[in-house]
Give the backbone structure.
Amino acid sequence: MSDLLRLSLLDLVTHLHQKQVSPVELMSITLDRIDATHDTLNAVVSRRERDDLLEDARASGDRIQRGEARPLEGIPLGVKDLEDVAGMTTSFASVPFRNNLAATDSTQVGRLRAAGAIVVAKTNTPEFGFTAITKNMLFGDTRSPWNPTRSPGGSSGGSAALLAGCVLPLVTGSDGGGSIRIPASFVGAFGLKPSYGRVPKGPSTRWDWAANAAFGPLTKTVEDGAFFLDIVAGHSEDDPASLPDPPFSYLQEVRRPLTEKLRIAYSPDLGYAAVQSDIAGAVRDAALALADLGHELTTIEGGPPQLGGEWSSIMYLDLAGVLAPFLPEQEDTITRFLMNGIRETRGIEPMAWDEMRRKRALLNQWTADLFRDYDLLLTPTVSFDPPPSRGPFPTEIEGREQPPAAAGALTIPFNMSWNPAATVRVGLSKAGLPVGMQIVGPRLRDDLVLRAARAFEQVRPWHPDWPSDYA
């Protein structure tokens, strides 16, 4: 494997801009790496033609030679197969959509392309992004570069496997219940679910009334994540929930030392999650590392209301409408548990929906109260090791029963509350697999979450320790 693909995104950009490597050379190395790793990872679901990609790379090389390089000039990009790329299929990993050709780029892809990135491939995801295991009836299961018998998580599992496996230097992800943070944790990468609206979604043919999902960085380092956010964040008329353009550069912000004393809350389980003991110990140790930097760390009891079941119902209701034109004729082509979830939502009474609204309001109040007293919250990102590549998830951990939506038990609350939440690698479990710590901040304080993540990364760096001997 070329050492180029082990570099951070920012280091690779520097190599290109300083003409230490050409975009054509980088693209050729990347395409060869995709071929060499595909049988092991199964993370790429479609790819543009090699000749077209090399032509794009030559055009990027010409811009660099003329001194007209854009921020991501010549960087190969993988796009999660829930997001549109003009001229490529957006299958949602679902059989009825296997020929769903996109006419336009998503806003995020358009901004990455305008910054010079070259779309190479679409990356695998569970069907419509449901579950934290990346497998589906169209493309099969994606596997982790750390241990190919295990899952890289989901729903951004294909992107995570390609990033951590040093195949693609830049990928997209989305997070509706942990779908950036869970795979980032499982593969030892940095992941950020920004404040809701920070990165615009769309253009879309449907109104996002559930308001859970966010686009955000899935990168090797925190600085890479801030750099990514600088390119894709900012208002878009195509997304009515999009936030105004940031008044500063996230990359500049993340490079500012975290000298102010922070009040940090630490919750080992949010009051309800069953957490593997070695993971609990690693995250507790990581929290103490932040305290050693001079911050005030307080262990808190209890947590927000459990919303895993309610979150699932909301997501299934959304999906029921999307799939309605294909049912019941194509029911056998839809993942069984998705169909089961859709059927269950059909029987939910109005009072039950109202109860979901009430619990989400209680969650909002819990986070509001918490961040009046504290600047940040730390938790484990996921409470157990990555499951087998085809599942299942564990139903209990060391004798304790798992709560609903167990993989997202610690991440889902902050999708529903709109708080920014990141994950950083804090070490390896007894099984030799990455462990993540979640850093949650007040709404709109993506900058503070990034700075705290960078401060931890500086005392406990994980890059450039990436798996390389799997293929």
Observations:
- The two ends are 9 Å apart (CA to CA).
